[in-house]
Amino acid sequence: MPTREGNTILIRLGIVLSVFLLLLYPLPSQSAVCSIDLGTEWLKVAVVNLKPGQSPISVAINEMSKRKTPSLVAFHSGTRLIGEEASNLLARYPTKVYSHLRDLFAKPYDVAKKILNSLYLNYQIVPESSSSRGVAVIETTGDGEQSYTAEEMVAMLLKYAVGLAEAHAKAKVKDCVLTVPPYMGVQERKGLLAAAELAGINVLALVNEHSGAALQYGIDKDFSNGSRHVIFYDMGASSTYAALVYFSAYNAKEFGKTVSINQFQVEDVKWDAELGGQNMELRLVEYFADEFNKQLETGFDIRTSPKAMAKLKKQVKRTKEILSANTMAPISVESLYDDRDFRSTISREKFEELCADIWEKALTPLKEVLEHSGLKTDDIYAVELIGGATRVPKLQSKLQEFLGRKELDKHLDADEAIVLGASLHAANLSDGIKLNRKLGMIDGSSYGFVLELDGPDLLRDESTRQLIVPRMKKLPSKMFRSIIHSKDFDVSLAYESEGLVPPGAASLTFAQYAVSGLTDASEKYAPRNLSSPIKANLHFSLSRSGTFTLERADAVIEITEWVEVPRKNLTVDNTTSASGNISVEAGPKNASEESNDKSQVDDGIGNTSINDNSTTDLGTEKKLKKRTFRVPLKITEKTTGPAMSLSKESFADAQRKLETLDKKDEERKRTAELKNNLEGYIYTTKEKLESEEFEKVSSSQERQSFSKKLEEVQEWLYTDGEDALASEFQERLDMLKAIGEPIFFRYDELTARPAAVEHAQQYLTELQQIIHKWETEKSWLPRERIDEVLSEAEKMKNWLNDKEDEQKKTSLFSKPIFTSEEVYGKIFNLQDKVASVNRIPKPKPKVEKPVKNETESTGEKSSSTNSSSEEASQNGQTAGASENSADETETTESETHDEL
Ligand SMILES: *[C@@H]1O[C@H](CO)[C@@H](O)[C@H](O)[C@H]1NC(C)=O
Ligand SMILES: *[C@@H]1O[C@H](CO)[C@@H](O)[C@H](O)[C@H]1NC(C)=O
Ligand SMILES: *[C@@H]1O[C@H](CO)[C@@H](O)[C@H](O)[C@H]1NC(C)=O
Ligand SMILES: *[C@@H]1O[C@H](CO)[C@@H](O)[C@H](O)[C@H]1NC(C)=O
Ligand SMILES: *[C@@H]1O[C@H](CO)[C@@H](O)[C@H](O)[C@H]1NC(C)=O
Ligand SMILES: *[C@@H]1O[C@H](CO)[C@@H](O)[C@H](O)[C@H]1NC(C)=O
Ligand SMILES: *[C@@H]1O[C@H](CO)[C@@H](O)[C@H](O)[C@H]1NC(C)=O
Ligand SMILES: *[C@@H]1O[C@H](CO)[C@@H](O)[C@H](O)[C@H]1NC(C)=O
């Protein structure tokens, strides 16, 4: 029942969306919105499609019709490969295939090296040389030893993903939402955003994975009758988290009516960023590696062979999957090392024993989130499982045991819930799409952030290091801090505590800024009568995507001074007093927005003096005024180390590199297509030539010579043609077609021509009847028009007879004397002529009426215009005319539909 409800909602949503878009863009607009879930192992794409007749939200499939694609990039023989293609190289060229790319953002080289080593990944990384970031970059061997940053590599994956979305939607993708695991830090999120920018993607927001899942969970449910706590437990390939989410409903006024609006709030999320399905696989890899080493009996350790390890890892994945449904599983790796095959089996029991500590660790995030919330397992409405690794039976039984439940909640698609939910968020954020089903989303910052100030003469007190974003602070939010200071200073942003930083982070600090202009401003205003100490106001932004930045800073200078103001004729305004009653500025010290300087000056002068010259005579008077000056300060980012973003130059460089690769890919695709066309042509043509029918239309000599040509080109295809250019394939295809087409044409005409001739004869017979009818029943038809048709018919008849005679005398091996196309052309011509005569209307008898009635006169007019336009139009048959009118009614119908 709930799913059916969900479906109809989605369908309704689709209809609403498409109508909405039609209203916005009268011409059919071709843009779609998508979400991308880029994980360590897989990437998934969901599309919000506004085209009518397609399901509004769906998962995009890849070129292998799979719903998820390996998150891999490879470079081999100068060619870049992504996804499935890269995956195919994994066993043969493990060092040329790059994985875990998302996890390399902002990682110091040594940290990255350690991660890769622990996973037996042997691709080459080096410290970035073009910057002082100290991050790891990937050095490719299959691409002339280029190096690529994590941003560049991920940009390739994202661009590929958008390509899938566009192919699926058959439309351009305008906006995207990208999902991120909750533990992703500020600099990693910035890295992902930079990658998306490199890929030319307009990112509406990053969204935490658990929020995506919560959206998908809540969109088809109603919480007005009861709120609930749900925990989303996600174990993916490389990480695990548990998120506590509160679903509820509140009442709101909408168009004067009270409606209930569903919403959810993420209350907490805890994770283990280094525990996932791949850890279980690694246990199996170690186990089998030992076993194989023993079998080898040479003392050699296959762990030192990247190729062997890659093969073993690939097979182990399968073994683990089999163990999820069976108590025993085999493993079989052909030629694992040194031409020796490896075969073994493992029981589920043994597997569970190997992973004993993993099961315990897996519960930790769940325990923590419960403990922190003070809720008991009974208070939790559901613990929904997502992520591929939650399919492992032992993990499920551990969870059941801990929760004291017989059944676990598996209402969501373990693989696709996140990406589907994220696409709802994308639709919600994208312009021009109105979700007809509302679900409010409140997510919070995964990390707490502190603000640190540093600079000359800065008092060291509790305000120089203060918590500015507490954990789970609502996204997005703006913050404001005011400090009393008169010299330039530095601002650092850091994670709240050592114990809670993104995995592998080099330091607590993730951003540093120099704030300048304050010293100058202070000096400039120092001689003035300052009414309060100079302040610097700092404006921070916690974005929807979970990044945190210092956005803006300004100096605030308050001065009290006597100013000359024109004296006014104050007979009306009786609140005169020299000291003036201008204590506007009485706000608290921390108040953010004082009215600014300009408006106060306006207030002082007033505008009565303009009308009345006499007031100038009164002279001026002095007033004590309080004025506030705001001076924008300059913010210079000076973050150092791995948390640094790509510099402008590196970014431009990266764009160029990626563009070159894209062009190469395009060329490769075109070449492959042309090569395929040529191969296909040769294959089908050879088959045709061998069939008997073609003996009728070609001499054996002709066929033999053509066959030889085909052989030659085929030979070339598999030798020199292996790496030929697109143009070379095209040239050969054109050459072959020039020989082949005439033969196939003759063959087709063998049946088409007689059919056409018969058709013509039939029509000529019919025509006789038509003319007879004209002569007997339509006396008003002009004789010369009928004769014209008769003569045309005669001409055609003669032409047919001549051509047929000639054709009979001609060999079927040579070019036909006439073609079926010519015959049909002649028939159509004649039919046209007949139709135009047919339409000559019967003249209306002239009715003599003294008063011309309007309705009658318009009737006459329309009939006369009808006939004249029909005569003018060449192929205006009656059918054509009725088609026209059908068109008209259709357009008016769709117009009214639009307006709905
Ligand atoms: C909510 O509760 C009321 C009364 O208990 C019931 O009539 C209504 O059908 C419920 N609505 C939903 C959506 O469950
Ligand atoms: C959708 O947008 C509304 C209005 O901006 C917001 O209140 C709500 O939280 C959003 N919901 C989702 C799922 O993004
Ligand atoms: C300076 O400001 C104070 C009030 O803050 C005022 O009493 C005093 O007259 C001002 N002095 C000058 C020189 O403007
Ligand atoms: C002030 O204005 C009043 C009328 O508004 C006028 O009668 C009076 O003469 C004016 N005084 C001066 C000094 O201009
Ligand atoms: C100002 O004028 C108003 C009437 O316009 C009067 O009620 C008020 O008492 C006057 N105030 C003074 C200080 O003269
Ligand atoms: C200033 O205005 C306040 C209220 O607006 C009034 O109570 C006070 O008497 C005024 N002071 C002078 C000097 O007019
Ligand atoms: C006001 O004074 C200006 C010069 O100060 C003069 O040009 C203008 O004509 C005067 N207007 C009236 C209405 O007297
Ligand atoms: C035309 O004839 C109709 C029906 O006879 C009549 O209702 C109408 O008023 C006439 N129109 C004029 C302009 O005379």
TrEMBL record:
Keywords: ATP-binding, Chaperone, Endoplasmic reticulum, Nucleotide-binding, Signal
Protein name: Heat shock 70 kDa protein 17
Family matches, as InterPro entries: ATPase_NBD (IPR043129), Heat_shock_70_CS (IPR018181), HSP70_C_sf (IPR029048), HSP70_peptide-bd_sf (IPR029047), Hsp_70_fam (IPR013126)
Keyword Repeat: no
Biased composition (Polar residues): 573-582, 606-617, 874-884
Location relative to the cell: Endoplasmic reticulum lumen
Cited Pfam families: HSP70 (PF00012)
Cleaved signal peptide residues: 1-31
Gene Ontology CC: one annotated term: endoplasmic reticulum lumen
CDD domains: ASKHA_NBD_HSP70_HYOU1
Renumbered residue ranges of the record's region Disordered: 573-617, 838-900
Record-level Gene Ontology MF annotations: ATP binding
Family: Belongs to the heat shock protein 70 (TC 1.A.33) family. HSP110/SSE subfamily.
Keyword Signal attached: yes
Compositionally biased region (Low complexity): 860-873
Basic and acidic residues bias (residue ranges): 591-601, 845-859
